[in-house]
Amino acid sequence: MGDVNWCVVATSNNSTVYKGTFPAARGLPFIEFAKKVPLYKEYDWAYEKEMAVMTSMNHPNVLRPLAVTRDEKAAPAILMEYFPYGSVLDWMQHQQGQTMPLVLQLSVFLQVVNGLEYAHSRGIFHCDLKCANVLMREDFSAVIADWGWALQGDEPITHPRGTIGYQPPEGALEATNGQRYDVYGLVAMGHDMLTGVPACGILFEQYDALPKETKKHLKAACIEAGVPSDASMRLSLALCEGIIPGIEEVVPQRELPQDVALAMLHYCSMIERTFCNYAGQRAMFSLQSARVIAEEARRKLINLQYRD
Ligand SMILES: Nc1ncnc2c1ncn2[C@@H]1O[C@H](COP(=O)(O)OP(=O)(O)OP(=O)(O)O)[C@@H](O)[C@H]1O
Ligand SMILES: [Mg+2]
């Protein structure tokens, strides 16, 4: 077999993800896989932790490393299946502003619920759920990746974790927990898929391009205000106007039957109400009720496709 050919798939503040290709040889097809390595030596300990969390789980909707190893510079490396579509965010960005078909959105949402329920049952909380951290295969099966912020045990969280815009807002003022982080992140993901716009209200590339100092102030201001910015406003508007983003893909030029509209509104309003979870208003859906609401919407939409 020839050498592995490596190319960079993504670089973040913390790590580089590579695609490795074994060339085809002796009648065998080429093989692709991915490798994630930390950018800096100081992140090694975080990697060790991420690897330990990931290898302790075994579920179809949780990314399971193929191997945990060390690269040629002795840095810890996570070897994993390569996902040609990348993350849900990568897929959405590829569609150039088009949102994912609703049935598919709901399927991804429910797969993430499955993975979360499993992780929570083992006392593991992801704490950084967002479209960029859910990877998809060509058949749209999805796995939760990037367990770098995961917590083992539902201890109180007193310092913000994960990604700005995807943290439960009350965490800025008081201790919160992994359960609330994951439900909030899940619903924020649902929001992003529905609207095609990040819940943090500021495009990732724009945010990334800001000077470091500005980023720090912006982050502090958002946390202090406890706002998921314009997310809730945008959804309320869509609901008031009776427009559900993406619905026309399912029912082109067709009036939406009331039961289907109701199930979809229920899903949208779960997202909207979670975003209205400002400090002081404690309502938050459980994973179980999020599942019931999303399953109902998905079932109605699928039935609709088979109605004449
Ligand atoms: N196995 C994989 N196959 C294909 N693409 C992948 C794979 N793993 C990661 N990626 C791509 O790399 C990106 C970053 O991966 P990951 O979230 O694990 O790293 P990270 O350093 O923790 O990122 P961030 O700090 O931005 O959350 C993903 O959003 C996705 O685009
Ligand atoms: Mg990530």
UniProtKB/TrEMBL annotation:
Q: Could you tell me which Pfam families the record lists for this protein?
A: Pkinase
The UniProt entry, under SMART domains, shows:
S_TKc
Protein kinase domain boundaries: 1-308
User: Under what name is this protein listed?
Assistant: Protein kinase domain-containing protein
Give the species this sequence originates from. Coccomyxa subellipsoidea
